[in-house]
Design brief:
CATH topology of the largest domain: Dihydrodipicolinate Reductase, domain 2
Number of helices: 12
Number of domains: 2
CATH superfamily of the largest domain: Dihydrodipicolinate Reductase, domain 2
Shape: globular
Strand order of the largest sheet: 13-12-11-7-10-9-8-14
Distance between the termini: 55 Å
Number of strands: 14
Largest sheet: 8 strands, mixed
CATH class of the largest domain: Alpha Beta
Radius of gyration: 21 Å
Length: 371
Amino acid sequence: MPSSRPPYRVAIIGTGGIAGAHAAALAELSERARLVAVADVDPTRAADFANKFSVPHVFTDAKALLESEKLDLVHICTPPQTHAPLASLVMRAGVTALVEKPTALSLREMDQLAAVQEQTGSRVLTVFQHRYGAAAVRLRRLAASGALGRPLVATCETLWYRPDEYFDVPWRGRWDVEGGGPTMGHGIHQFDLMLSVLGPWSVITALAGRQARPTDTEDVSVAAVRFDNGALGTVVNSLLSPRETSRLRFDFEYATVELEHLYGYREEHWRFTPASGHEELSDLWADADEPDITSGHRVQFEAVFDAWDAGQESGVTLLDARSTLEFAAATYASAFRGVPVTAGELAGDDPFTLSMDGGAVPWEPVKETLV
């Protein structure tokens, strides 16, 4: 959506890994936003990044960046342990924080962010870009309208493969830094999309294990879930699957809607199958005039700017992200306690509000090799 206002001023904190996807997406939206500054504790990496993406100002300290620049939005692309502290710092500077998933390492940290949000009037948004692909937006609209009938069954699978060497990066596979395994760091994108379609969940029964990888965290989890609307679903998060795929399936009364992709989808990755006697629904699904753009960071950033231009609240809000993080926490709590966990049960000083492992991991931590 074109805008007559000056481009939004944006900065990125953390210039490793995923930051390149953020900068590339912002470059595609150059009429809407300008990447004016970056910060990283590694000055060489920050300078190389700034040179690659033509960023005029480089800092080695997030506080100095916030004190020096007038900003509308700060993207936080650092390791998960730093997300909540940096988001608080950004909000206290009067700027909106856009945080890579997971927003925080615990429900307690999420509630602390909510308190800062209330105090400052600034906002925390979370990167869950798969919510914003055109087909996902259409599915939510059709589901909410009742055209597809009641949701009955759902399947959500993130079947990815990460070799042992992937965990050579010091912060990966650690509860205290990454927050969890594929449930927190990989499958969270798919089950966030599932939750955005089906709405609140009511109870989870789960299993988790460390089957093969040299991690402190799980490398696979499996959950059965009941939703408030009565639908039943399964969720699998794996880093052990040589044929990688990301799959979602929704069985409504009148149609099945399926998605299979890997790290981003287009229209070709979706399949719509109407039930007998409801063939006219195929026309509703096909009657779309949205651009066929991969569900990457660009579509979410564009949605944020569109909302701001229209004077509306932008997503994914802290409340939305907390629901998704609670789903992850409940998966761990159910798996490690061996009991079903209901929505809202993890509260107060429950160990699983303080950390995703809840102090109850049933396997021994990996011992660090001394050199």
